[in-house]
Structure formats: structure tokens, C-alpha cells
Amino acid sequence: MHKTSKFSLPHSQCTPEAHYLNRRALIAGAAGAGALFASGTQAQENPDFQINGFNTTEEPNTLKDISSYNNFYEFGTSKEDPARYAHNLTTDPWSVEIDGLVERPGSYDLGDILKNVNIEERIYRFRCVEAWSMVIPWNGFELNQLLNLAGIQPSAKYVRMETLFRPEEMRGQRTRVLDWPYVEGLRLDEAMHPLTIMATGLYGKELPKQNGAPLRLVVPWKYGFKSIKSIVKITLTDEQPINSWQATNAREYGFYSNVNPNVNHPRWSQASERRIGGGLFAPRIKTLMFNGYEEHVADLYAGMDLRKYY
Ligand code: MTE
Description:
- The protein has 310 residues and is α+β, with helices and mostly antiparallel strands.
- The protein has a single domain (11-301), classed as Oxidoreductase, molybdopterin-binding domain (Sulfite Oxidase, Chain A, domain 2), CATH 3.90.420.10.
- Helix content is 19%, strand content 22%.
- It has eight helices and 14 strands.
- It has helices at residues 17-37, 63-68, 81-85, 110-115, 143-150, 188-192, 244-248, 294-297, and strands spanning 51-52, 55-56, 95-100, 106-109, 120-127, 132-142, 158-163, 183-187, 197-202, 205-206, 216-218, 231-237, 272-275, 285-286.
- The N and C termini lie far apart (38 Å).
- Ligand MTE binds next to loops.
């Protein structure tokens, strides 16, 4: 876990976890005391939230939180299954097939991709549709860089992505919980947005397999299920793709899946969230429109009825 690989940043260029943990301990102490007086049901504003460039100033979750409470149905449906079983996945060598409406279709070796993109650290809020959230220091590159390597044809309107299908190593794929392989999609302008990244690491280390190694999408203004893991195929198309959750239950999961406190999931409210690692008594925090990234992305949806396009 500690080796610096071709998928991650040299340690000097990234956020050391210990630095955060010290600050976090102080904040957790303060929040813990406050929680004694806070009402259990009323959601609170998050006083630590600000966006600095693209990064949030909130305290990141620990690597342990981030890598032990996961959704990755290829390894099972419980939150602990991915950490328990994902070590079986072979992630090197890895290549990504890029096809459809591109100038240079083909199989792109991950090592070659990484030589041609700019890896940065991005500290993003992550909000799951199940109403929990985390703050995650990713290492990765903007998806637009990869799409430009392949060359986008003018008729392309959407990007469709697929996860690896390898049931020998992904035990969940031996069951029919989802229709494999896992599929996700974005509108092309969403995919080209500079907030949309392909993550290759966490805290400057190689991406843990349970988090979608060696290459996973991160779209911070959308619910977490859009962040497809272990990607092996990218197709540019002129048709809106149907994602795996939509295919499973279209009434509950749509194509856009933008974080929106005003549009509830049919079975639960989306107005507030529980920050993982905040402790048992931490008050729920209010969910922000587009997960706090409204100033960056609201224009993409100008004039659209977000109740209809959920
Ligand atoms: N990608 C694949 N291939 N399979 C999955 O089951 N789960 C999604 C998303 N990407 C999933 C996936 C869901 S529901 C969430 S909330 C996030 O991954 C969880 O990412 P994390 O485990 O890194 O927090």
C-alpha cells in the first residue's frame, strides 16, 4: 500500500493523511461537545464548508473510512464486502477500450494514458444517494484530457462507460444482483467539465481496489453511484446511455442523478446527510444543491426541470 506506483503522485506532492488527522481530532472534539446540545433530528449547516478553487476546505475522511465502507457490487452487496474481497482483482496490466464517435478508437494502455495527462490532487465532497457523505482527497486527471486524446467527433453527445467483467476475480458477478457489466453515462458537456475526474489514487497512494482501482470516475456534484469503478471501456455516442441503476429501477434512479436536496428519493428524503466518521452523536448536515458545486455546474442545467430530469 505504501509504494508509490505509476498510478499515484509522488508523496511530496500530496496531502499527508497525518496532517488532516491532527486537525480532524481537534474538530471532532469540538463537534462532539457541540453535539451534546444539538437536536438529533434537525440538520445543521456545515460551518467548515467552503470551496477553494475546486477543492472543499472541509476535513477529509481518513483513508480507513474511505476504504472500508464501500459500494462495489462486483464484490458483494454489503459495505464491508469490497474491502474483504477486492484484493483478488488484477489491475496491472490495464487498458481502456475507447470507441464510438471518436477520431482515434482503440485500446489505450493505462501506462500510456498516464504519461499524457496531468495528475492532480482534488479534495471533493462525495454524497451517496443513501444519504451518507465523505470528503475524499483524490489523485486523478480531468476526464476531458482522456477524451481529447481519443479525439471527439462533432456528432458525439454522450459518454458511456463500462466496468470490467471478470467473474473469476469479482465474486459478485457470479450472482445476478445487477445486469453485468456495470454501466454509467454522462452528457458530453458534463464529461468535459473540469470538475469531472478520473481518479487513480487516494491520499497520494495507489487507489485501493475496493475504491475502483486502477481507474474510476468521480463527478462530485452527482450522487456517488455515477462514479463508476474499474473502467475498461468508454464509448462516445449520440444516444443517452441507460445506467445500471436506471436499468434496475428507473423510478428510483435517473440518468442525471444530480445532488438535489429539493428532490427526494421515492423512499427517503435527500435534504440532509450523515458524514461518515463524524461519530455517533454528530448532527446531520444539510445537503447543498449540486453538493455545494452550484456555482460551477448550475449553468449545465439552465432551464431544465430537475424534478423531471432526476
Ligand atoms: N461502480 C461499480 N462498478 N460497481 C458498483 O457497485 N457502486 C457505486 C459507485 N460505483 C458501484 C460503482 C455506488 S452506489 C457508490 S455510492 C460509489 O461507487 C461508492 O464509491 P466508494 O466505495 O469509493 O465510496
